[in-house]
Each structure stands twice: as structure tokens, then as C-alpha cells.
Amino acid sequence: MFSFKKNPIVGLDLGSSSVKLVQLKESGKGLQLVKLGIVSLEPEVVVDGAIMNHGQMADAIRTLMEEQKLKSCDVVLSVSGHSVIIKRITLPTMSEEELSESIKWEAEQYIPFAIDDVNLDFQILGQTEKEGQMDVLLVAVKRDKINDYLSVVTEAGLNPVVVDVDAFALENMYEINYEQGSEEVIALVNLGATVMNINIMKGGTSTFTRDSTIGGHHYTEAIQKEFNLTYEDAERVKRGEEVKGITQDQLKPLFDSLNDDLLTEVYRSLDFFRATSTSEHIDRVVLSGGGSKVPGLVGALSERLELPVEMVNPFKNITVDSKAFDFEYLQDIGPTMAVAVGLAMRRVGDR
């Protein structure tokens, strides 16, 4: 949402457990995958969305760039969590230029932070049914959060040109890969390591967003504690891999309990959407993020919500060279790369 200059783009998703990179280019058939990579982070490098160890994060970014044979380049980043506020508000009809001049004053009543401590952006969504009124999507991000991300990327030798929001990156990814009917309501649920992003769209327009501090680490930590495992082995168990001494019978009660915590949070968010929106129904849920690969989660979520739930394929409509990329690997890693794909589609000046 926050733009700085115009140049070719690499999407860089700075997560809590890994850094993901995607580069796309325009071809005669649409978008084509050029680069894709992921490198893991040590625990505690990122805590609650805040970068706690700039040196290790910068090293991880440099490692990823070297693996992908990329030198200094322009990147798009994204942020999420409690430092990000997204509100759909109604204002008197005015031009974009007029709103640009008055947005600071209009936003003060909706933002729980000091207005001088945030970066603001907005998008006019269109006229409301009430004459003389328009819907506006307001976005505010704490300035120190943005500066934190910008500084670590700069330290790694890269040039940040756009800072987006995870929920909107998901929206970009979904729009290029899937068709959505004008009245269809889709819930995009991205389960990261420490944050879950929810973006509910109607007819291709975002109508509700929410970030919750629950994610894949919730599973990892519980598995570590229950079975006295290392972090690495707990991650393997979470992904459904076999670890010596741990049986599926032992895991099922724990996964059922952990899934229930997550499902309750998703249900609460969707229930809040229904209570505050004119769209009372949701047609289906599209799941993404590394945490979405927890065994049995898709079925449990579908059963709890009584809705169709599917795992996202962020490369569905993107041309992929079979000589350069392994399709089985892309299918396996796809849900984890959803935000990075959405970021790689961004161009400076986009709305």
C-alpha cells in the first residue's frame, strides 16, 4: 500500500519462521514464475511480528538472494499483526485529491494510535446506496513497524519500493488465480507461524479483514512440550512427517485439541463478519500459509464451519517452466508462498 519508487519487483515475505521470495514476469500467456525460494529462520528471530534479531534476519535474506542468484534488487514487503489497522469507513463523497488532503483528520477517529505515529493510505471503493456518501478502505500501519522492516531489508543490500499488507497480498494472489462471482463471498484464511490473516471478499472487493495472534507455532510449541522434542522434530511432526517414537494414536488427541483452538478463532472472526456486514453468508473458505498443512485441518475446518474449504494453489494461473521448477515441490510448498506471490504481482502506484 505504501509506495516509494518504480522498478521491477521481487516479492519478499518476511515471516516468523521463514523468509520467502518470488519473482514473476509478464509473458504472452500472463504471469510467469522466474524465481522462488525459501529459507528458514531460527526461533525468536521474529516475535509477535517484530524483528528481534536484525542481523540474523538480514543474513537469512542475503542467503536467499545468493541461492536465487539475485544481486541488489527492488523488493515489495508486507506487514501484519496488531500494528496494522484496516477499516472500511463511510465518508462524504469527494475526489481522491481532496481525500488525500483530509485523510489524516478523517482517520483520527478510527485509529487507536497517535496519528503522527502511523503511515496512512486509502482506497476509494465507490459510492454507497446513500446519496452523497462513499465507502473508503483506510489502512494505517505504525511507522516504527514499517521502519523496522525497511531497515533490515536495506541492511541486506536490497531496495524496498513498496510496503503492502499481508491480507491484500493474499487478495492479489487470489484474483490472478481464481474467478469470483459478483455476489460470491470468499474467506481467505492465511495461517502463518504466529499470525493468522483473514480477508473476506465479496465480488472481488475486500469487505472485512482481521489478524489474530494464533498460528503454526501454537502447534509446534505444544508438540515440543507434550513429547519433549527438539524444535526441528516438532516441526516435522506438525507437517505430518514421521518422528521415531511418536505414533498417530498419540498425536490425534493433541491435534484435535489444537485444531479446536484454531477453529474457534476462525469461527469467531467469521461470526463477527456476519454480525457487522450486510453479507450474512460465506460461500467458501480458501486456506493458505505454512500452518495450513497441519494434518486434518482442512477437514476439521470444513466440518466446524459447515462450509467448503480448499487449499490454495497460488500458481494455478501462473506459467511455470517444468525444466526450471519441480511441480511436486511447487504443489507442496504452494500454500506457504501465497503472500509472496501476491507481493511479486505488485507494482508501484497500484491501487
Layout: helices, strands, pairs:
Elements: E1 2-3, E2 10-14, E3 18-27, E4 30-40, E5 46-47, E6 50-51, H1 54-67, E7 74-79, E8 84-92, H2 96-107, E9 118-127, E10 133-142, H3 143-155, E11 159-165, H4 166-177, E12 185-191, E13 196-202, E14 205-212, H5 216-227, H6 231-238, H7 248-276, E15 284-288, H8 297-305, E16 309-311, H9 327-333, H10 338-344
Parallel strand pairs: 2-7, 7-11, 12-15, 15-16
Antiparallel strand pairs: 1-11, 2-3, 3-4, 5-6, 8-10, 9-10, 12-13, 13-14
Question: What would you note in describing this structure?
Answer:
- The protein contains ten helices and 16 strands.
- The strands form four sheets. It has a six-stranded mixed sheet.
- The N and C termini lie close together (about 5 Å).
- It is globular.
- Mean pLDDT is about 90; it is low at about 1-5.
- The chain is α/β, with parallel strands linked by helices.
- It has two domains: about 1-85 and about 140-180 and about 315-350, Nucleotidyltransferase, domain 5 (2-Layer Sandwich); about 180-310, 2-Layer Sandwich (Nucleotidyltransferase, domain 5), CATH 3.30.420.
- A hairpin with a 4-residue loop joins strand 12 (about 185-190) and strand 13 (about 195-200).
